[in-house]
Design a protein that fits this description.
The protein contains two helices and 13 strands; from the N terminus they run αβββββββαββββββ. The strands form four sheets. Strands 2, 3, 6, 10 and 13 form a five-stranded mixed β-sheet that branches. The relative contact order is 0.21. About 11% of the residues have low confidence.
């Protein structure tokens, strides 16, 4: 009985791994982000936006950055990985996420969260990550994240 179950499992894995469709699953480690940085209602141009993450399951830590434009706006693309094992092996998704803003030689914690799912836009319960970050606002803990940013409506 156990032998037949193992054989079935191996056959299933072989079919999945060798299929033309590909069994790799797209895992979102950080959804795409758009945002605005303002100070007392005035757009902050030239602020450095630094995004970091730590994917605990793969022990992968990386960062990227961008700069706000003249209107204080920024955007960061999604960070994804393709993983056969991530789609087959049960594990607990755990990605530490953070966005910092460096403006006028001051570093602000804009967004900080723990991601527990690989679905796109998981951070805000399925809503796109559209943020407005007010430099004069103290960092607070919201329902799903902390930092100086709020969800732009």
């Amino acid at each position: 009985m156990i032998r037949s179950m193992v054989a079935a499992w191996v056959a299933c894995l072989s079919l999945v791994a060798c299929s033309d469709v590909g069994a790799e699953m797209k895992l979102y480690l950080f959804s795409p982000v758009t945002g605005r940085v303002i100070h007392n209602g005035v757009p902050v141009a030239g602020a450095k936006i630094e995004r970091t993450y730590n994917w605990v399951w793969k022990n992968e830590s990386r960062s990227d950055s961008t700069t706000t434009d003249g209107a204080g706006q920024f955007q960061l693309p999604a960070i994804t990985r393709l993983s056969l094992w991530g789609s087959l092996v049960p594990h607990d998704p755990y990605v530490e996420q953070r966005i910092d803003i460096l403006a006028n030689n001051v570093k602000y914690t804009a967004f900080q969260a723990i991601r527990r799912n690989y679905e796109v836009n998981y951070e805000l319960d399925g809503a796109p990550m559209k943020l407005v970050c007010r430099l004069e606002q103290p960092a607070t803990v919201k329902e799903r994240f902390g930092g100086i940013c709020d969800i732009e409506k």
